[in-house]
Description:
Blueprint: H1 2-25, H2 65-72, E1 80-82, E2 99-102, E3 109-112, E4 117-119, E5 123-126, E6 134-136, E7 143-145, E8 148-150, H3 157-160, E9 177-185, H4 186-189, E10 200-201, H5 203-213, E11 222-226, H6 237-242, E12 246-247, H7 249-257, E13 262-265, H8 283-292, E14 295-298, H9 303-307, E15 312-317, E16 327-328, E17 333-335
Parallel strand pairs: 9-11, 10-12, 11-13, 13-14
Antiparallel strand pairs: 1-17, 2-5, 3-4, 6-14, 6-16, 7-8, 9-15, 15-17
Amino acid sequence: MRRLRRLVLALFLPLLAHLLSYADDAPAAGAQQQPPAPETPPAETWWPSEWGKDDQRGAANRVTPERIVAASRLIRTGKVYELGRPYEHGMPLPGKRHYSLTIPGLPTNGPQGKNAIVSNDELVSGEIGQVGTQFDGLGHVGTRVGNEDVFYNGFKLSEFGDTYGLKKLGVENVGVFFTRGVLLDVAAAKGQRSLPIGYAITPADLQEALSAAGQKLREGDAVFIRTGHGFLWMKDNAKYGEGEPGIGLAAARWLTDQKVCLIGSDNWAIEVVPSEDADRPFEVHQWDIPRHGVYHLENLDLDELAADKAFEFAFVFSPLRLKGATGSPGNPIAVR
């Protein structure tokens, strides 16, 4: 009997010790475990998209006829807000991008005929889709995965890239935005004229601004985030370009969870600069554009909207149909 008891103890005690050790390492009851942050490049793939393996429109597909009609009902006073900045010499330009407009000859043509008609034309040069107020298309940003540069819907740059225009994901595929727009005035919600450079806007910040606006986000909305950084435009271009407040990765994830179609802001990159992780620059671009097909509109003027507390409006924007282009200039508008 004693031998049997010793044998049972010899077998049971190591098992008991293992169970106690596991209990010490286990989370307390009710404790919430945070999922690991997604990696870029990711271990998992982000394609095919929810709109099919051949889709080239991304979140623009969320702008359905029903949402267009609903947005039109937001127009009550007919007031129009121009959200685009003037394209002009001396505006802030990132890196080595350039912009130039010239009129080659005054007048450029004429006089002609007995009526002596004359006319002027302009010559514009520059990265026209990526200067000033700019719309980032789905061909703008991708991720190096192994030996391939992969973009929205898993399209490989080696298969669709071309010096004379992208063969897929060109901005001509996007279509027209006519949808509900929502202004999140984060700067005002925090009682500041401008958030400091390097401030990473959090989901809690966005929810605070949303509550202050008395709004709720809906699928297909275009969301506009006012940081106050636009105050520096053409006043202190050096400071405007050296960094910016903007959304962090958690806020980007929160917005894509709301199934928005577009994110705009009064800064030049939508996201916080310097990045939250110095080794992972412009990760919000990678999260929004290739992974979720959500577009960016940068360098906007949101001050008049904010001054009028115009938190909900019809948003209208049609990117130029530049075949094969990575982005588009333009003058997006809000209408109340």
